[in-house]
Amino acid sequence: MKVIRNQGSVDMEQMLSKPLFAHLATVEEGVPKDSPVWFLWEEEHIWILGSTSADRFPHRLKQNPTCAIGIIDYEKATGKVIHIGFRGEASVEPFDSERANRLLRRYLGPNTDTWDSRFTTFDEQTILVRVKPETVVVRDQSYKVQIT
Q: Distances from the Cα of 148 to the Cαs of 49, 74, 141, in angstroms?
């Protein structure tokens, strides 16, 4: 995995531990598609929970595994703008309940009793997507906030 950084010090591991949204970019019949997803950064891969019956991105990735993922950490009040972009290949993997629960706890908290039922019941259509990054671009694009 090649990591490209601009000036500035961004702790990539720290940022990827936050419950931020990622945008998964795939291609279907030459047309780009974008899917907002929750993710888990683990073992130098991005893991995404999906369903072959409810989501289209697993089908697109089976046809063309090349993909990109963009993650932004933004704070208007401070001018913080951090971007991490991944380019690589994805594979649709069998469901792993332990990994899926680690992913969901990041976004929903540790108490599964408070989770929406969509996140507690899985069927044979539930899968994980594993993205193996070939290139990672880490950019600090923060700006100074002008106080008026």
A: 44, 21, 22
Q: How far is CA 9 from the centre of its chain?
A: 21
Alpha-carbon dihedral 57, 19, 75, 131, rounded to 10 degrees: -40
pTM above the 0.85 mark? Answer: yes
Predicted local distance difference test score (pLDDT) of residue 6: 76
**φ, ψ dihedrals at 100, nearest 5°:** -60, -40
What is 2-111+119-140's CATH number, 3.40.1080.10, 2.30.110.10, 2.40.50.140, 3.40.50.720?
A: 2.30.110.10
Structure tokens that stand for 103 in this block: 């992913």
Encode pLDDT of 2-30 as tens digits: 988 876 678 999 999 999 999 999 999 99
